[in-house]
Amino acid sequence: MKVALTHAVRALAEGLGFEAWGIAAVPPLAEPLPPLIQSAYERYLQWIAQGNQADMRYLAENPELRRHPAYVLPGARSILLVLQSYFHTRAAVSPIAQYAWGKDYHTSLYRRLDIIADYLRRQGEQARPFVDTAPILEKAWAVQAGLGWIGKNTLLISRKAGSYTFIGGVLTTASLVPDSPFTEDLCGRCNRCIEACPTGALEPYVLDARRCIAYWTIEANTLEEGCPYTHGWLFGCDICQQVCPWNRFAKPQGEPAFRPQAYAFWPREKWTTLSRSQVKKLQQGTALRRARPEKLLRLASQQKDSTAAPSFEGFPAKAAPAACLSFGEKGGLPARVRGQDNTAERLHSAPGP
């Protein structure tokens, strides 16, 4: 183990402003994976076998690559995982998910991670930074690196930062000193995320993208077959995070790149007045580029009819949720979720692939 190099890498991660960081050891290909990672890989295979990825084909392509980081970087011995908060507020003030309020996170995170990777290269090691750019089970490896646990909403949850975080990392051939895995599941008996999901997309630790508002508003190619009512959301969905008690510990982030753009606070009605070219201009340099302008405009127009019933046509057999949630007249969550979120505020602690 390279102790001095490990200290240098940790110092770089801290100096670059990441919320948290941890290191996991990567075993040689011929050796067994850590039990936590092996279990996560098996759950991933089961998840795609059930079709939970919807039409996101890239999640199911070449699944063997996700089994071991050495398929991504030959000779990999360690993986540095970092968390970057994008949290702004616990209030429901926007039909846009918070992660897309600022500039595209890929650029900012990758540049900083590449500084660490470049340092490792100058020490004679190979290194590859990644931010959603490598077939790695990053949430599972983040748990292995001691950064938190995967909650019932399938997101990584940190004790200190909650779940409003981006995950990035650096794969390297350097043998760094690893951190201890996070071995607790602090969701406990809490099921708020599952109860609050308006389309029934969540079961404990499993997300069915075919029912997920974030999938339909961001990833889906069409809003036709099987698309449920999106309950006021135009891009993404934060409901399962808004109701999570652990997000009471999240603090507003200070990264300049993630400062909210003006559109983050526009009501849906404002979006209906925009032209395609205006939306396309707004999308430049932001995560909103992931959705076609036509889809954003269509969703904004659809939300005018707030009484529309949710559709579950084409979904696998499953009971629809007892109550569906939507943004209120002024963009806030309805009373059922506001009450849960306020309860979370009062608590000191509580609690797929």
CATH arch. level architecture of the largest domain: 3-Layer(aba) Sandwich
The percentage helix is 25-40%
Based on DSSP secondary structure assignment, what is the total number of beta strands? 8
Shape: globular
Please describe the topology of this protein.
Elements: H1 3-15, E1 20-25, H2 35-49, E2 78-85, H3 105-122, E3 127-130, H4 138-144, E4 149-150, E5 156-157, E6 165-172, H5 192-196, E7 202-203, E8 206-207, H6 213-219, H7 239-242, H8 268-271, H9 276-283, H10 293-302, H11 335-346
Antiparallel strand pairs: 1-2, 2-6, 3-6, 4-5, 7-8
Helix pairs in contact: 1-3, 9-10
Written overview of the protein:
Helix content is 29%, strand content 10%. It is of the alpha+beta class. The chain has a 4-stranded antiparallel β-sheet, with helices on both faces.
Keywords for this entry:
single chain; 353 residues; alpha+beta; NADH Oxidase; 4-stranded antiparallel beta sheet; 10% strand; globular; disordered C terminus
In short:
Helices cover 29% and strands 10% of the residues. By secondary structure, the protein is α+β, with helices and mostly antiparallel strands.
